């Protein structure tokens, strides 16, 4: 059963928080058009409960059970939502876990809150995807349509109705890019998990984060034959083992 955080921006953000007994908690960031009821999110949440580790899941604005329509939300709101969940719901230092777009947002939150972050783990991270989408994937006709109407709907393997892409999402995403800087001031332990057969986000996007981060305790983990979902039993087991290993390392 989820609870609601009333944010200072007057939004209602749905979340689930397991208090646990650990001094360090886990905060999960879902992907684009995903929510806290996603398979990986619940798998990690239930695993944390079995270990009595603190864990928090939440829905961005316009996602799941949170307020606001998706078409009216953007990276600006999603980063604000994430920041409030970190600072108002979680307790003590956190390990951030981000899936796909959530990996991008987790890095942003890590940069904004370095003293609260003990580690970051990304799964098929999709940093700066709005820039790639606009420059490499949208046709001229699609760009004209999005400029005229404010949004378009593009086909998606994950939603039969397709994904809504708004001008607001593109613009706000491009204001929060992380790969343009020479270095990323991420000094906490970092684990980047990616499938080598990911057709949606190439594994070299995780390599870019790896190369730019300042942390000397960083690992890029490539999953053989792994797709973007990384959700079969063997892949999930590897993710959980990596989460446990990172926890054991930072709790010392």
How are the SSEs placed, and which strands pair?
Blueprint lengths: L2 E4 L5 E7 L6 E5 L9 H13 L2 E5 L16 H14 L5 E6 L1 H12 L4 E7 L5 H9 L2 H10 L1 E6 L2 E8 H8 L15 E6 L8 H9 L5 E6 L9 H18 L2
Parallel strand pairs: 3-4, 3-5, 5-6, 6-9, 9-10
Antiparallel strand pairs: 1-2, 2-4, 7-8
Helix pairs in contact: 2-3, 4-6
CATH-defined fold name:
Rossmann fold
Tell me the number of strands. 10
Mean pLDDT: 96
Structural class, from secondary structure content? alpha/beta
CATH class: Alpha Beta
What are its keywords?
252 residues, alpha/beta, Rossmann fold, eight-stranded mixed beta sheet, two-stranded antiparallel sheet, globular
Structural summary, described in words:
With 252 residues, this protein is an alpha/beta fold. The chain has a single domain (3-128, 181-250), classed as Rossmann fold, CATH 3.40.50.1820. The chain has helices spanning 39-51, 75-88, 101-112, 129-137, 140-149, 167-174, 204-212, 233-250; strands at residues 3-6, 12-18, 25-29, 54-58, 94-99, 117-123, 151-156, 159-166, 190-195, 218-223. The protein has an 8-stranded mixed beta sheet with strand order 1-2-4-3-5-6-9-10, with helices on both faces. α3 links the parallel β5 and β6 (117-123). The longest helix is centred in the last third of the chain and has 18 residues, at 233-250. It is globular. The model has no long low-confidence stretch (mean pLDDT 96).
